[in-house]
Amino acid sequence: MHIQGLRSRYSAAQLHLHWGNQNDPHGSEHTVGGKHFAAEMGSFNPSYDKIFRHLQDVKYKGQEVLIPGFSIEELLPERPDEYYRYKGSLTTPPCHPTVLWTVFRNPVQISQEQLLALETALYCTHVDDPSPREMVNNFRRVQNFDERLVYISFRQGIILSVALAGVLGICVVLAVSIWLFRRKKSKKGDNKGVIYKPAIKKETEAHA
């Protein structure tokens, strides 16, 4: 698989799924414009049924199932050339900062049944555990930005960034100009109401 902007071709080795729960379906580990999504796995579409139909076979910890091969490109959203990219970290321990994240701009819709399967079908415990625990909220909270540089591949984002920077620059110039004007006016106002009188020299007579 080739991802635009990267020199090499890659083979997908793992797919990580993250989701919330039925009462709080905000399980994505990334936000776009401050917006969370119900789940995250790169992207979703009907082709994910090739994975979801096997969830019942790996319901409990330690279970495995063999899934017939398919092209990972079937799981990508429309316009995979539009994305955000930044240097970040793994979202699971030990969270090493060694990941080049590519977050696609366009999300893909999944059905309510598919989301419900993620939120209710899997458990963190073994099949014979007397206290089964549902696998929910398996996402890491959004981390601090820490002045990371985010590359935007699509033109609209670049234009918007330039426009915002221009507006911010104009606001700064206006703010400084207003501050200087008020400061100058304040200094002039300090002299109001002050009456200046000429100094009267007193001559001291010298007595012989």
TrEMBL record:
PANTHER family from the UniProt entry: CARBONIC ANHYDRASE, CARBONIC ANHYDRASE 12
Pfam families (alphabetical): Carb_anhydrase
Protein known as: Carbonic anhydrase 12 isoform 1
Keyword Membrane on entry: yes
Segments crossing the lipid bilayer: 158-181
Domain of life from the UniProt record: Eukaryota
Any one GO molecular function term: zinc ion binding
Alphabetical UniProt keywords: Membrane, Transmembrane, Transmembrane helix
Family: Belongs to the alpha-carbonic anhydrase family.
GO CC annotation, single: plasma membrane
Domain Alpha-carbonic anhydrase residues, every copy: 1-154
Organism: Lynx pardinus
Keyword Cell inner membrane appears in the UniProt entry: no
